[in-house]
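Researcher: I need the complex structure. Ligand is zinc ion. Inputs:
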Amino acid sequence: MTSDSLDGMSVHTLGTGGGPIVSSSRAGTSTAVRVDGATYLFDCGMGSIRNYRRHAGWGDLRGVFLTHHHSDHIYDLGSYLSTGWQVPGESFSAPINVFGPGKPERIPALDGDHERALTAQLNGRSMSSTTDIVDSLLDKVFASDIAIRMADEKRTEPHEWIRAHNIEIPDAAAADAVDNRHPEMEPFVVFSDELVTISAILVDHRLCFPAFGFRIDSKYGSVAISGDTAYSTNCMKLAHNVDLLLHEVIDLPGILSTFPDGPTRDGIEVHLRESHTSYMDVGQVARLSGAKSLVLHHVVPNTPGAADLAAMLSTVRKDYDREVMIAEDNDVYRISPRETAIGEAVAHNSGAVEVTV
Ligand SMILES: [Zn+2]
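Model: Output:
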């Protein structure tokens, strides 16, 4: 079933919670961008696949784009790929392209000493690429299921339907997993078809390298998705004058209050400070990028009532005088060629929030 068959461009927040936490109110981070009935999926957070079916069908999914390989952004990847391949009567209508980070040449680390310490600590573990992950899902994790369905249900080779690609970072960026994880660079095109051009840029997610933000341009307008990132000048370039910037946000005091004192909390605090964007800073990112509207997602903490959403909004509005909203799951933001301000949301969680930018 496709709930939205109208022409145009729209952003559907399938999952708006950040972090590897199961929340009763927010699925993990995942966003569908729809253009003239085609669907482009950005990240596959836990539980988001259930919401996907409220907004789109398998036959109109054209591509999956992974910002990075943290688990809370890829938990449901196997669900999307195996389900889209095997649902009787409504499977993929054409091969699905999956784009995401490649394997870094070095273990991402703060410096050379840290790199050596991590290498010893990892017990031979390596980083994986997007093609590694997809191959593992199809050839190992779901190997039995796929073999049985091919034999029993006459299903065809899944690799013919699912094509994985590692995003190649332009050499000119001189990116490096230790020495230059967030180089100053320009957005570069990773995918295009007759409806959209999708560009990427490296953002700053500390030791999770490479990590990308994506921008989607169509004849109707433009959307930028920050991915997980600390305050990033590259993200501002990506979102230059964009119609809608969908940016991650954290309430640092809010999430830290959920952990007991101790070294784990101290480590998490460093990770959060240096990997994510506080609501104190995200308004400035939007203002400096020239984004025409701002929607916050990847809300951390994502358990009901744990993040101070009112403080987020009032703080962001001090730095950014255009429209700003905090997304909930199943919101829909419609992009229009008309340059009007964001309208009032009808209601959250109705599955029918319509906002015009
Ligand atoms: Zn992350």
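Model: Summary of the prediction. The CA atoms of residues 30 and 43 lie 5 Å apart.
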